[in-house]
Amino acid sequence: MVKVKFEYKILISYLLIGGLWISFSDQLAKKIISDPNYLTEIQTYKGWFYVLVTGILFYFLLKKHLIKIRNAEKKARESDQLKTAFLQNISHEIRTPMNGIVGFAGLLKENDLTKDQKEMYLDIITKSSDQLLNVVNDVLDVSLIDSGNVIINKTQFNLNEFLEQIYSVHSTILRKNISLRLNNTLYSSDHIVFSDSVKLGQILDNLISNAIKYTPKGEVELGCETKENKLLFSVKDSGIGIAPEYHEKIFDRFHRAEIETTKTIGGAGLGLAICRGNVNLLGGDIWVESNLGIGSKFYFTIPGDFVVQKPTVEEKADSKSVLRPGCVLVAEDEEYNFLYISRILNDAGIDFLRAKNGQEAVDICRKNANLGLILMDIKMPVLNGYEAVKIIREFRNEIPIIAQTAFAIGNEKKKALDVGCNDYIAKPFKREELLNKIRENTKAITDL
């Protein structure tokens, strides 16, 4: 259906109303009034009446339209200001760790460095890399949420163990003046829930990190309770607080409670937008209670999908009983990536072979019966990882395959599992992440 522009609507309405008014009013006036002089006078009043009525009508129409235009213009100006502030902030957040990486990598080339200096420089490079990766992940997450490409993968997991893990991770990286407390009212040790543990962990990580960041000294509390068939999570702090006028805006992308705080407090300002997006995807709500100077209390809910049964000890034992020795096939075309993976496997005492493309991976898998696990890169020449997995599954259905890819967006994990992979790891990954994945799919490796 063709949409008619506003100015054409006004013109057509004016001509149509005017034509009908002149036509019908003249005919009516001629039937009622026979005196020509009086008829002329009536037609003059009739014309002024038409001008007055249409003027009032068009005034309100134009006013309504102009209000929409002005509001849109105001929002556009605000959006431009926020985007400018965001780009300045994101530039700072990217360039700062890059400066640490490039600068200290250059210093490592010097010959007169002590062992302690080298270790310190490497530690700075590692921390800067993690910081840069967090910024990139935040930008990608917001883009995925906005585009609707986020896939929820629900699994069964022990909520108490999950909360203890979140608490333990953040407890190890606290500043001296900050304490973290876990207030968990789920007394039962076997609270098995059905939800997306990755998304839930991302929400809690962002909220706790924010609470620690904006609390110069004091306490941060992570809480969980059941309320009206829902799980209610809370993250409370005794930090700088948030003014009431920002309580809704801080959950929007590009918004921060104080743009000026970017000068003293790091972060891209995307964490809360990601939190709200993930909470909505999980079917819950998120809100904040706060005032300046008295700290903040963030709350969010998700459906309380509890599972009555949990995996038995016998089932867990069965999953370990299928271990057998074997060799890992690393399908990776990028030289630096292969060198990194090979170093990890060598240090762990794991035998491995290499395939530089998908077709080589298929051929090696056909010829080597002692292969126990495959690390399959997705983007490779000749035959990509997905196509290679499909072919391998035609003649070797039992071998575990872990997809490893830089395509860490959208439904890539689901796609990998659908074609026949057993697991998925996103690049860049750390040593322990890779070894943990191998352990979890440990049909190939008996002792890491």
TrEMBL record:
Chief site of localization: membrane
Membrane-traversing stretches: 7-24, 44-62
CDD domains recorded: HATPase_EvgS-ArcB-TorS-like, HisKA, REC_hyHK_CKI1_RcsC-like
Domain Histidine kinase stretches: 89-306
One cellular component term from this protein's GO annotations in UniProt: plasma membrane
EC number: 2.7.13.3
Reaction catalyzed: ATP + protein L-histidine = ADP + protein N-phospho-L-histidine
Residues that bear 4-aspartylphosphate: D377
A Pfam match: Response_reg
Protein name: histidine kinase
